[in-house]
Amino acid sequence: MFKDSMAFNGFSVDDIKAAQTFYKDVLGLKVTDEHGSLLLHLATGGKVYVYEKGDHTPASYTMLNFPVDNIDKAVDELGEKGITFEKYEGAHQDKKGIARGIAANMGPDIAWFKDPAGNILSVLHS
Known about the structure:
4-stranded mixed β-sheet; 2,3-Dihydroxybiphenyl 1,2-Dioxygenase, domain 1
């Protein structure tokens, strides 16, 4: 039934203008206005729908991952743009906030950060 459907993901934010500035100007994504909501255009060709919700509750899980070739460079560049990285108990993160999973044979190297609405995002290298 949905084999050929062009499915897409979506999530809420509490301030659509702040989200637009963040995703476009800070993260550098192509962002288009969709009648007061946003479409994030991903390099994969996929799209993510972002909408404002008055009683928004931030996602408590990583809802959008950005694979990168060089995680240290990505973390440094995001840090220069004012991004702070989350620290999680037991994640074995270094002082930059990167969990070095590759060296420990425990998944990718990954660092988590939040958008202005508190949704959790990551940069990762595998």
